[in-house]
Design goal:
By secondary structure, the protein is of the alpha+beta class. It is 29% helix and 26% strand.
Length: 372
């Protein structure tokens, strides 16, 4: 089918209400457009499926997704499905931010503590999905979005499958997909947990090393063998026990629930942070997954801590104070390009910040997370 039919012109209206603003991307089964809803004025993502990829089962999945009614801060599901001009479509919220796969491909080095934090948030989304007896089957870095506030969103959930059954459609993505998914065997909660730990290995290794071992790992997994994670073990010995268990070929030998994996990863996160699980902290989350953590006390923050190569950030930009009881404050240090909290300018007087606030330091956006 000609591409100008599959891809609408920018500015045209789909389904009498969605104005196309950009082409967001393309997968194996569909193209995705960024659109503005001219009725609600919300930005939406419209997924248009390629007709030659559609089967009876896929059409049913498309129709059923908006009916699932799953509410989660970590999952993105379609709100509506419709047909127009012979195409099947899904309508879902547009997520501002960057795809984790694109972040990795750009060469960004993600610190181990940030990598673990990303997967910790992924476990929460997976736990929400498993609570309604569904398995994602396609967890990977390319299906993980990081918002400007540092929130993690799992996308592309159309082909999730029933827990305890064989997959009707999904085969997952090689290297992320475990043996039982590749071979159309019964799916378990641990099917998704396997994929998440592969993502964590990818984050810890970096794109080049991960690509170097991908072929051998894929072959091991297809043969029902545990992938050789000796390189990971040597670099991160404390991660060894988690990876060994999560990547067992037999799904019954892995972690049994997302919550079980979360507890192990959280302990590892605290080990990397040098704190115990009860230590109060304030965290500043970057769009690219980087994270700054502060315990009780005052800290001067500037260019070297945020981005040493960003001349828009002053050498001493702002000061942060945390009392250890859930209350944080900041004040600007007469910086060149200013500090904002929720789009309001901050002067040299203390301004209180709360969990989920958004800071802007020059041209850098940071999400605030506070634990008491």
């Amino acid at each position: 089918m000609p591409s100008d039919i599959i891809y609408p012109k920018v500015g045209c209206i789909i389904n009498k209400r969605y104005k196309v603003e950009d082409i967001s991307g393309e997968g194996n089964t569909a193209a995705v457009f960024k659109c503005k809803d001219i009725v609600s004025h919300r930005y939406m993502a419209i997924k248009r499926f390629f007709p030659d990829k559609l089967t009876k089962e896929i059409k049913k999945k498309i129709a059923d997704e908006p009916k699932l009614g799953i509410k989660s801060d970590y999952l993105v599901f379609a709100e509506q499905s419709f047909r127009e001009q012979g195409f099947y479509h899904l309508v879902m919220p547009h997520i501002d931010g960057q795809c984790l796969g694109n972040i990795l491909a750009s060469g960004v080095i993600i610190e181990p503590i940030t990598a673990v934090n990303i997967v910790l948030h992924m476990t929460k989304g997976v736990d929400d999905l498993h609570s309604v007896n569904l398995i994602s089957t396609d967890i990977k870095s390319d299906n993980t979005m990081i918002t400007p506030e540092g929130k993690i969103k799992l996308i592309d959930n159309t082909f999730c499958e029933k827990k305890g059954s064989k997959a009707l459609i999904s085969k997952g993505t090689p290297i992320y997909a475990p043996y039982e998914l590749l071979n159309n065997e019964r799916l378990y909660a641990s099917t998704d947990l396997f994929s998440m730990i592969i993502v964590l290995c990818e984050l810890l290794m970096g794109v080049t090393e991960f690509e170097n071992i991908s072929e051998s790992w894929e072959l091991d997994i297809k043969q029902g063998l545990k992938p050789d994670i000796s390189l990971i073990k040597s670099k991160y010995p404390e991660f060894r026990r988690i990876a060994d268990r999560a990547l067992e070929p037999n799904p019954k030998d892995r972690f049994t629930s997302a919550y079980d994996l979360y507890k192990e990863l959280y302990a590892y996160y605290n080990l990397l942070a040098g704190v115990n699980s009860s230590t109060p902290q304030i965290r500043l989350l970057f769009m690219n997954g980087k994270e700054l953590c502060f315990n009780q006390g005052r800290t001067n923050i500037g260019r070297n801590m945020i981005d040493a190569n960003n001349s828009l950030i002053s050498e001493l930009h702002f000061e942060l104070e945390y009392n250890g009881n859930g209350v944080g404050k900041i004040r600007d240090h007469n910086s060149r390009n200013g500090t904002l909290v929720n789009n309001k300018g901050v002067g040299n007087e203390w301004v209180q910040i709360k969990d989920s606030d958004v800071l802007r330091v020059a041209n850098i956006q940071l999400g605030v997370r506070i634990s008491a």
